[in-house]
């Protein structure tokens, strides 16, 4: 059944009181998926995440957060130029120890992770995607949080949203 006939077939089934079988349900799902993929909202949502990440990285001057040097947009792409972290990520470090870090290393990295997350909260944000892949290690072995694409801004009343939605006034960047 072609995509343009599917909505009409689904509509006639629901109007006549006919039961929709598995194939009919799949047709409806395909139509909904195709409609949403063409929607302007589908393209705006990822763009908003990248803008939010860029805005957060511009705001941040924390030693615990990846450093953004430049951001620019090309044909359909946003480029974020950041530092290279030679230590790799925490997932790779854990795999070197068979997922069992020695206690002294575990204490060190948990303390650094707590300080890093606290610095994000001090800037008025929630990271929402802290996982070993998003914890990078610099050449000295210290952590840097990365991937703020899903971060949310904390409002004064404890609500969370994007900075744009809250109309948050950006604090001045620390020197």
Automatic annotation (TrEMBL):
A single GO BP: actomyosin structure organization
Gene Ontology molecular functions: ATP binding; protein serine/threonine kinase activity
Domain of life where this protein originates: Eukaryota
Pfam families per the UniProt record, alphabetical: Pkinase
Domain Protein kinase per the UniProt entry, residue ranges: 1-175
A cellular component term, taken from the record's GO annotations: cytoplasm
Name used for this protein in its record: Protein kinase domain-containing protein
Organism: Scyliorhinus torazame (Cloudy catshark)
Lineage: Eukaryota, Metazoa, Chordata, Craniata, Vertebrata
